[in-house]
Hints:
The complex is a heterodimer of chains A (437) and B (448). In chain A, 47% of the residues lie in helices and 10% in strands. In chain A, helix 4 runs parallel beside helix 7 (80-95), helix 14 (254-266) packs antiparallel against helix 15 and helix 16 (287-293) crosses helix 18. Chain A starts with a helix and ends in an 8-residue tail after the last strand. The relative contact order of chain A is 0.12. Chain A is globular. In chain A, a hairpin with a 2-residue loop joins strand 1 and strand 2 (134-135). Chain A has 437 residues and is of the alpha/beta class. Chain A has helices at 5-8, 18-22, 24-29, 36-47, 55-62, 69-73, 80-95, 99-109, 112-122, 185-191, 193-205, 221-225, 229-243, 254-266, 273-281, 287-293, 312-318, 322-330, 352-355, 357-374, 384-396, 406-411, and strands spanning 129-131, 134-135, 155-156, 167-169, 178-182, 208-212, 249-251, 284-286, 304-308, 334-336, 378-381, 402-405, 428-429. In chain A, the strands form 3 sheets. In chain A, strands 8-7-5-6-4-13 form a 6-stranded mixed sheet. Chain A has 3 domains: 5-95, Alpha-helical ferredoxin (Fumarate Reductase Iron-sulfur Protein, Chain B, domain 2); 114-292 and 414-429, no CATH class; 297-411, Rossmann fold, CATH 3.40.50. Chain A is built from 22 helices and 13 strands. Chain B is α+β, with helices and mostly antiparallel strands. Chain B is 35% helix and 21% strand. Chain B has 14 helices and 18 strands. Chain B has helices spanning 10-15, 37-50, 102-110, 128-134, 141-144, 179-183, 217-229, 242-252, 272-289, 300-318, 336-349, 376-395, 414-417, 420-433, and strands at 6-7, 30-32, 54-57, 74-77, 84-88, 93-97, 114-115, 151-157, 163-167, 192-199, 201-202, 206-214, 236-241, 262-270, 293-296, 323-326, 354-359, 364-371. Chain B has a 7-stranded antiparallel sheet, sandwiched between helices. A 5-stranded antiparallel sheet of chain B has the order 5-6-10-8-9. In chain B, strands 1-2-4-3 form a 4-stranded mixed sheet, with helices on one face. Chain B is globular.
Amino acid sequence: MSRNPAIDNADQCMKCGFCxxxxxxxxxxxxxxxxxxxxxxxxxxxxxxxxxxxxDYTERLSYCLLCGRCEAICPAKVPSPDINIAARTRLIGExxxxxxxxxxxxxxxxxxxxxxxxxxxxxxxxxxxxxDGKPLRHMADFTSIFSxxxxxxRLSHPFLSSRLPxxxxxPRGVKTKGQVAIFPGCAFEFFFADIGEGIVSVLAxxxxxxxxxxxxxxCGLAVRSAGDIKTAQLMAQHNIEKLAIxxxxxxxxxxxxxxxxxxxxxxxxxxxxxSRAQALSAKVSDFSEFLVKEGFTSNAVQPVTVTYHxxxxxxxxxxxxxxxxxxxxxxxxxKYVEMEGADDCCGLGGAFTxxxxxxxxxxxxxxxQNIKNTGAQIVVTSCPGCLIQLKDGVRRNNLQVKxxxxxxLIRGQIKPPQKRRSTGDKGERLPPxxxxx
Amino acid sequence: xxxxGLLTAPVDLAAYSFDGTTNWQSLPEAxxxxxxxxxxxxxxxxxxxxQIPVTPRGAGSNLSGGSVPISGGIVICTTRMNKILKIxxxxxxxxxxxxxxxxDLNRELAQQNLxxxxxxxxxxxxxxxxxxxxxxGGPYAVKYGVFKHxxxxxTAVLPSGTIIKLGGNTVKNxxxxxxxxxxxxxxxxxxxxxxxxxxxxxxxxxxxTVIAVFDKVVTSGQAVHRVLTAGILPAKIExxxxxxxxxxEETSHLGLPLEAGSILLFELDGMPAAVKMETExxxxxxxxxxxxxxxxxxxxxxxxxxxxxxxxxxxxxxxTSPTVFAEDITVPISRIADLISKVQDIxxxxxxxxxxxxxxxDGNLHPSILTDKNNAEHYARAERAVNEIFIAxxxxxxxxxxxxxxxxxxxxxMKQAMQPEAIDLLRGIKKVFDPxxxxxxxxIWEDK
Lengths: 437, 448
């Protein structure tokens, strides 16, 4: 068995068990093979062939949200999520990828055009898409048949790429401070294009020329998390090449932000891509992080009570938790209330929710109770994955709570711009920001 | 027993084959997660009928090998028995199931201005049942004692399946032999405890942390003695040597002084005026003992950082070496400085790294020997050093384990620590509770 430096980190685990205090899954079922301490041991034992790499082992590896709480609380800072990914990679090396997974990771997610074409066809299936943010009423939960009951967002119609010019300019009267490139990610490109537009609109109104780069691909995080690190590296390389010329890359997606900021760590020291990846990672900011750094001030809104849910990819992977709150607290009219367990996971964990729906819902239930206890009218978050899960939870629990991406609250209810052709480098102006809400 | 209440897959069994130590591993044949005392009773009846060994386990964060199922059999994991049954703020007691996590209990209590002091540094994960079974303690022991000082009553299940209620709800209670105290610290070798009633205290309104820096570890030992004999009783007095300070700084960057030979962390608690006076007393005492620097923590945030560093200390030690003997000796407070000198001599004589961290205020130190069990020569040297440390602790009138328990880790030293007739009494008590010897066999003492 060749040594794998990522897996060798498991040797640093001294089994204190602090991870058990922080693990959303262990808190529900209290099973040691579902938490970092136990899993790290299993991964070591499987490496020594002391336990079989059987289906049970594979399943235990999948029983992890990769949320990063274990690493955050670990006194020795054992990178348990990365160890798990390395172990999944080792499994793929031993057993290969199943055909459907190969098709998704290496075909669809890696190839943005193919994905756009496939989803572009799906748009015309009744009930699968939305116009102007409103879901079509009937067959609204048609897609949930394929997601074990999770209500998936409808596809946006049209996609973000058809809504935005290549360059969006600040409105007249707003001084241009600089240029940023937007990384929309699959979610804001295909599912929440309205939010994608809103992010661009806020940035433009804050004085930035926002460049929409046409042929980016998926950030690759989901593919890497599944252990297919080679494909994820190819996706990273593609994005690095397309984005290298920009000084600031902004994303409104906590997951994409994590991936882009981690690209530097996705390549080994002796890989020539490492330095290029690191250079790119250094230029990436989350939407709220960028706004706070640039001294953004928001317009007033109608009085409303708001709470914030920390996405794992935001707080535990990027260390961003103050900035979104700072923005929310700065908005006149917003009464901000902190929920208990605001940084507890929502339970989605990407593909986790599909593989382990019951556990996902048990974690979601706790989150819903905490949201309900605040009495907030709006729960704000910074991750499209969390948006999906929180909206699903609100629907399942019949809560009278709106779930919003942070940009939605800031931008208020501006109408999405007309569908326009790209005007190349000339750029287009958006209407000035209207009062929010 | 509900969803996944019984585990038998090889991967799951492997995850229950160890505890918080580095040396011990042994597979169970099944892991069960009872939710009620009645279920525990049914499991034990079955185990007795089939003569299957049973190892009770909480979070498995113990440091003695005590929850490692060394004879195989069934692991009864109590982590799903996790309801706090009754907090009685008028009588200062709590009755709780044993799977409740110590930190969760204290969070609940704090909402009613109540406080349960014993604080093993695994409190983020340790269960109440595990703590009672190991008679756990921590930094607060200086002022507040350990688990046994708070145990009023309990419910347990004998190996026969019989459910027994022992003790009561009052601080004073001399009804016959103190049976709860026999189960406390019995390391799961007598019965499975399922519920306990604990004594509580009012939450102290004021806290102050003091940090004192010394050029030598021995001087800090003298400072502890000087502060206590001056009539001041801090809630905690914790010691970390230079090696630990450096290691903690490497991982956590808390701003600890890297050049210090050792530091002492004091916590004073109580009424604000008393805390203020005691803080001055601690600062004076440390200065007189020759501290390089001593000061009160600026604010709760800085104090919090210091204590986070202390908590990380043990893990920091474990993370650096394939095998660690984390010793747990205790000596009378007047002999702390002697013990520290002795440990340093032993480290020099055997050419070993022995890190010193511990609860200096109650005489309980954790000299930790860094070694590697795959390096036979080094390991043998480390074993000889451990032996000498134990001999020294016993010579000074101390004990071989202050709070971790004997389990597997220290049972070979029991003959030095207890006279044979006393060990026979332990065996006799075991026989009364567990005539078939199915409860956590192979622990505490060696077979005759």
